[in-house]
Amino acid sequence: MTHIKTIEAQLEARGLKFALVATRFNDFIVDRLISGAVDYLTRHGCEPENLTIIRIPGAFELPVVCNKIARSGQYAGIVALGAVIRGATPHFDFVASEATKGIAQIALATGVPIGFGLLTTDTIEQAVERAGSKAGNKGAEAAAAVMETARILELI
Q: Does 3 qualify as catalytic in the annotation?
């Protein structure tokens, strides 16, 4: 049988620096996402002094801020955190779509991984579920994804 080379990362954050870019809009949800991300990264060895939380107005500003951070060369990865909750107007669709596209484009253009912790929900209840109750904590999941991706990028 042929040997297949497999590259897998250690789930270890020691020595890595991360920026957590978090929106102030819907902060009652976003604060829970921040807590989940910080808890995950520190439990996996990230030193608190290697975490920087950057608060921004809203989800629409995530791409421009993530772009500046990614191009700074100071961080192994970025965790983008926010919550866009559908309202009665099409505003939700525009903000969620543009923020998502912008974040993906920045990660591809810079090679800096960005953990996607932007909730896009129909209701406040759904956002609460994804910020630490029934559906887990999407902030922690975004932190896990960016940490593992940063380690993978070191290996390939």
A: no
